Amino acid sequence: MEKSTSTNNRYQTNLMSIPPWLRRSVGKASEISAVQRIIKRRNIHTICEEGRCPNRGECYAQKTATFLLMGPTCTRSCGFCQVDKGHSPMPLDALEPQKVAESVNLLGLLYVVLTSVARDDLADGGANWFVRVMESIRQSNPHTEIEVLTPDFWGGKEGKITQRQRVATIVAAKPACYNHNLETVRRLQNIVRRGAKYERSLGVLKWVKELDESITTKSGLMLGHGETEIEIIETLKDLRKVGCDNLTLGQYMRPSLDHLPVQKYWAPEEFDKLGEIGRSLGFCHVRSGPLVRSSYHAGQA
Prior knowledge:
Helix content: 25-40%
Number of strands: 10
Strand content: 5-15%
Oligomer: single chain
Shape: globular
Radius of gyration: 19 Å
């Protein structure tokens, strides 16, 4: 009993420490329930729901959503992410491309973001699956723009299909935007992104531009893991060196006591300052604020 009480107190303390600018309504219940009903009936997933994004009501109202492809179980175990982890993810659902396309149509989405769990168990990391879903959406929703937010497609070994070839598969399908998040600064990569590498992720964004410079590239950071302003600026400069066009900066919020603790809550004025720095470095579009997430107002960029 004492252990349970202690855990509850720690959890309450964590909640009480959240600053007021991070407290907001999740949006209209009717808009959220409409989306939930459609996706649950089709047994598909959105990162909006799996990650309990605080902006999901606003995004749904603006006709945008982010679908989570290839199941709810990730083969990586990043210290910040709420998505389930496991070495034996579910088999791919052959009907998922059709189900996602139907959902896009029913919801009247004008801009769709496709993301996925990491699937290191698949020969191509799931690259061709992204393309299948894109093709299915375009068949029934030709005017809907598609952004992809992909993993790094590194499966621990190159095998027959190289990491660059996996990225090239998606680039050839011509997404409106190719997003791949660095998530944090170089020093904290091993702590925050287990299994990922800083240079490897920069390489993904670099390859996209080398393969098709007309495709907009995008990346984002979650602040609050102990990074410094100097480290953030160095990271932004590294992103610009590989031609990254768009940037998102948001606050990391600890999903549970099993995840990495928040080291700092960056204030709104600090986000404003960093946003201005990003613009001065040449990013075409910058979203910087405590509640900003990778797909926040994605269609406006």
